Amino acid sequence: MRKIFDGLKVVEWGNLISAPYCAKLFADLGAEVIKVEKPHTGDKARQHGPFPEDIPNQEKSGLFLWLNTNKLGITLNLETKKGRDILKRLLEDVDVFVENNSPRLMVEFGLDYNSLLGINPRLIMASITPFGQTGPYRDYKAYELNCSAAGGVLVGVGYPDREPLDLPLSQGGYEAGIGAATAIMIALMARKRIGRGQYIDISEAEIWADLHVGVNVLTFMYRGITGIRRGTHGGYFLYPNEILPCKDGYVALTCPQLAQWQRFLELMGNPEWAQNPRYRNRRAMHEEYPDEVNALLIPWLKEHTMEELFQLCLKQRIPLVPIYRINELMNHPHLKQCNFFIEFDHPEAGRLKYTAGPCRFSVTDWQIERPAPLLGEHNELIFSQRLGYSSHELAKLAREGVI
Amino acid sequence: MVHALEGYRMLDFGTAWAGPQVGGILADMGMEVIKIETRTKLDGSRMGRPLVGADIAGGDEGKWPDMQPTFHGINRNKLSFTIDLKQPKSRDIITRLIKMTDVVLDNSSPGVMERLGLDHGSLEVIRPDIISISLTGCGESGPIMDANVYAPLIISLGGLQSMTGYYGEDIPMNVIFAYGDCNASIHAAFAVLAALWHREKAGKGQHIELAECWAVTNLLGEAIMEYCMNARIMKPRGNRHPSMSPHNAYRCKGEDKWVTIAVNTEEEWEAFCRAIGRPNWSKEERFANKYNRLRNQEELDKLVTEWTVNYTPYEVMDILQQVKVAAIPVMNVEDQYTDPHFSERQIYVTVEHPLVGIETLYANPLRLDKTPYEIRRHAPALGEHNDYVLGELLGMSKEEIASLQQEKVVY
Hints:
The complex is a heterodimer.
Chain A: E1 9-13, H1 18-27, E2 32-37, H2 62-67, E3 72-75, H3 81-91, E4 96-99, H4 103-108, H5 113-117, E5 124-129, H6 144-151, H7 171-194, E6 199-203, H8 204-212, H9 216-223, E7 241-245, E8 250-254, H10 258-267, H11 282-287, H12 290-301, H13 306-316, E9 320-322, H14 326-330, H15 333-337, E10 341-344, E11 352-355, E12 360-361, H16 379-386, H17 391-399
Helix pairs in contact in A: 1-7, 6-8, 7-8
Chain B: E1 9-12, H1 18-28, E2 32-37, H2 56-60, H3 69-74, E3 79-82, H4 90-99, E4 103-106, H5 112-115, H6 120-126, E5 131-136, H7 151-157, H8 179-202, E6 206-211, H9 212-217, H10 221-230, E7 247-251, E8 258-262, H11 266-275, H12 290-295, H13 297-308, H14 313-322, E9 326-329, H15 333-338, H16 340-345, E10 348-353, E11 357-362, E12 367-368, H17 386-393, H18 398-406
Parallel strand pairs in B: 1-2, 1-4, 2-3, 4-5, 5-6
Antiparallel strand pairs in B: 7-8, 8-9, 10-11
Helix pairs in contact in B: 1-8
C-alpha cells in the first residue's frame, strides 16, 4: 500500500504523551520518525506502565508501546555538547522536529528554533508545552491535570458539591499531540508556498480552552453563563441528557429532538406519568428536577441489559447507547468486523493489541510495520550508517555517556 | 498576510459540531470553506436561544439562524450557500461546484450522502482527485453503524465514559463539553491535510472514514494495554495518578473555587512541604516517599485541603509556583477570560458581526509564526454567499440566479 508520508523525515524528542502521539501519527502514515531518548532511562513513558504482572520494565510499558510504533529509537545525552551537536547534524536533513520540553531547557541547550534556523531553513519545529512560549505562565510547572484545570476541562466533570474531575488517561496530552500534528501539516502545506519552514507554539491548556470549550465565551459574554458540572446529568438544555443505570451497567441517553424522547416513552409502554404537565416541560425537567424524572425511568431500565436496550433503541432510532467498559469494546463484534484492533509482536513485551488508527484512508491507510523501539535499538543504524560514525567513535561516545 | 491553505476549497455539508469544526480550523488557515445549507432543514446549531433577546421558543423553531453563539464560533471564516439538494435542478449546480472543489466533508448518518448522489464514488466521477471525508458515529459499515450518537454518547461507546468518575465509585460522570466531537474534528482536520499532502505528490484523491467513537478509543492505550497484559478492566480513578501524590483538585477560599496541585519528584515534595509551612511532613514515615504518599493519599489530600481552604486558587498558585511546584487554578470560562496569562496570549479574539456588533470568539490555538491564522470574517448569515457562489464561481447571470431563487432551488 502507498504511504502518505513516504520520504518525510521527522525527529521527535518527547516524553510521555503529547509529542510522542504527534510523531506517531506521522510514523504510522509512513514518515521516518527518529525518536531521541535519554540514555539508560529513556522516555518517561517507559516508567509509566501498565506493565505485565505489574513488574516495572522499561521495555514493557504499555503506554510507551502504544505511542511509539513504527519509530526508530536512538539514545542521545543532550546534556552534553557532543550530544547536542549530533542532534543538530540530524536536524540538518529533516522536515519536522517535534518536542515537549520546557521553553527554558530548549534555550539553555541551544536547541530553540532561532538556534536551529541557521542549520536548516526548511525545518518545521513544533514545541508542545503547558502554557506556550510567551506569557506570565510560560515557565510555570504544570502536569497534565494542571493543564486540564486551566483549559476548562475540570469544571465540566463531577458532582457540583464535590471536587471537579479530570478526564481519564491524560487526554490533554493526546489533544495537544493531534493539535500539533495538524499545525505541522499546515506548516508543510505552507512550505510549498513560502519555501521555508516555521515555528509552531502549541499550548496544551490553550488547545482545551479554545478548541474544546472556547465556544462558551459567547454565552458567557452575553448571558453570564459559566457552566457547571452536573454529576450524571449532561450539559444540553433539554431532558434527557443523562447517564442511567440498567441491569448490568450504565447507558447514556440524549434526546435533542422531541420525537426521539416520544419514541423512548413509547418503548417504555407510554407510562401514565408522561402525560403529567410536570413531565412535559423538557427544559425544566433538565434544569430543575432531572433526578426526579430519572427515578421514573430507572425501574424499567433495570429490567434490561445495556445490550438489550441498545438493540431496541437502534431499531427505533433513539439515541441511547451502552457505556462500554474496555473488555466489552475489545470483544465487540462491530469492532471485530471493522478490524479496528490489530495484533503484533514486540520482542520483549510479546503479542499485544493496538488500534489500526483513528480513521481510515481508502488509498493510503495507517500501517504498523514495526513495534516501538527498544531503548537505543537504532543507534547503529542512525549513527553509523546515516551519520557515518565509525564503530571506534561510537564506542568512545558510549564511554563518554553521549549515546 | 500569507495564508497557508489559500487556494484550497472545501464544500462543507457538516451540521452541529464535529463536522463544522473541521472546516472552522481549516478556514482559519485560509481554506475557502463553503457551508452547504438548506432552509428546509436548518443546521441544528442555527437553532436555539438567540445571542441577543429572549425569544427562546422562536429560537428553538429556527427563527434566529444568524444569532447563534455556537454557530458563530465554529463557523467563522466560512461562506454560506443555501441550496435545496432535493430539487433536481440543484444537481447541475452542485456538480459544477464539485469540479472546482478539493475537499468534500460531511457528518451525516451513513447512507445520506449516497442518497444525495454525493458519496465518494459519485464525487470521483465528477472530479477524479477529490478528497472526501465522512465523520460518523461508528463508521460506515458494521452492525452498529446506524447508532444515533451525540457528543456524550460518542465517549460512551468509545470507552472513555466508563472510566470517567470518582475513584472507588463506579458511576460514570457526564462530561458537559462535547469532547467526542472536538476530538473527532481535530483528527479530521489532520486527516484532510494528510490526504491533500498525498494528492499534491501522487495526484490521487481518496475517502477518509472517521468514526468518532473509535477516534476516542484510539486514545485509551493504557486501558487497552492493561486489559491485554493483565486482564484487568480499568475503572474510574478520579484525579488519582499512578505515581503522583498529592495529585488532585483541592478546595479553596470562595464559592466552588478549586486549585489543582500535582507533586512528582522528591524535590517538589520537599519544596511543597516547606512552602505550606509543614516541613516536618517530608520526614514523616507516612509521607516519606512516593509509595507511602500514594498509599496514604486520602489522608494527605485532607491535610492539603486544610491548607488550601485558607487561600484563593490564585494565591495557592503564586505560593507554590514560586518554589516550582505545579499548582494551577481550576478555571471556568470567566476565569479564563480574566486570566492574565490567557489575556496576554489572546486566547479570545474579537470580530465585528453585523447583527451583534463586536463579538468575542475563541482563537485558533495552532500557532504558526510565519503563516498565522486569521479571522477574516464573522460566521455567515444563512445564504449570505449565494450570489458569490452562483455569480462569481459559476458565472451565472443575474436572471439565472433570480429564477433559481424563485423556484426555491437556491434561496
